[in-house]
Write a structure and sequence with these properties.
- This protein has one domain.
- By secondary structure, the chain is mainly α.
Length: 89
């Protein structure tokens, strides 16, 4: 794999997860859709007697806190590193 292919793959991945950086109306809508999916997964796990995946338990998950953690611990560092990679090409 060459550097450009890697960067394009990373750009595609970022496009998929960049929701919190979009305008509020879009961010709010996508957050709602994502958590509907997470909670459906958690409901299925609960129904099957399985351990419920992190942030998939609608009874205990705080969506706002989950989003802040996602931004601080994953998205921001990934954007920072992607920016450094782009400067190198």
């Amino acid at each position: 794999m060459n550097d450009k292919t890697f960067l394009l793959g990373q750009a595609l991945h970022l496009a998929d997860i960049i929701n919190p950086c979009r305008e509020w109306k879009v961010c709010q809508r996508w957050t709602d859709l994502v958590f509907r999916e997470f909670f459906a997964q958690g409901d299925l796990e609960r129904h099957q007697g399985l351990p419920i995946s992190p942030i998939s338990d609608r009874k205990v998950t705080n969506i706002a806190s989950s989003q802040v953690s996602f931004i601080n611990f994953f998205l921001e560092p990934m954007l920072h590193e992607f920016g450094k990679l782009c400067k190198g090409i």
